[in-house]
Specification:
With 132 residues, the chain is mainly alpha-helical. It folds into two domains: 71 residues, Up-down Bundle (3 helical TM bundles of succinate and fumarate reductases); 34 residues, no CATH class. The protein is 70% helix and 3% strand. It has a two-stranded antiparallel sheet with strand order 1-2. The termini are far apart.
């Protein structure tokens, strides 16, 4: 079908910039997706630190000193809050994205979420033990 000769205008639905603010589900979704920006930037900061570590003690110490500025500390606080919010919302979303069956019955959401929090606590504790 060739639409180049058609005199009809295609229907284009108007999409306002604040469409996601009108529904709480979409607002939460957009905020969760927005937190991934901070998670990504923080990952780049950590990779930059690894690069400086490979370059030697002096380069790594310079990177550590740059992290002690008020702007860097503020960014870390915001990034921590964004990471915690992102993790919380993803843990709540995971049972919907990953449906687990036990026989013919669907495993309830609550145990899946609890297992994720327990795994997070165990891995965090192991990292603290290794680092300390």
């Amino acid at each position: 079908m060739n639409n180049t000769n058609s005199k009809r205008k295609p229907y284009v639905r108007e999409m306002k910039k604040d469409w996601w603010l009108k529904n709480a589900f979409y607002t939460g979704y957009m905020i969760r997706e927005g937190t991934s920006i901070f998670v990504s930037i923080y990952a780049v900061v950590l990779m930059w630190g690894l690069l400086r570590l490979v370059q030697g003690q002096e380069a790594f110490n310079g990177w550590l000193e740059s992290l002690q500025s008020p702007v860097a500390i503020l960014f870390h606080v915001i990034a921590l809050a964004a990471c915690l919010f992102h993790a919380k919302t993803w843990f709540a979303l995971a049972p919907k994205a990953m449906r687990i069956f036990r026989g013919e019955d669907l495993v309830p959401e609550k145990p899946i979420v609890i297992v994720q929090y327990v795994a997070l606590a165990v891995v965090s504790l192991l990292i603290l033990i290794i680092v300390a």
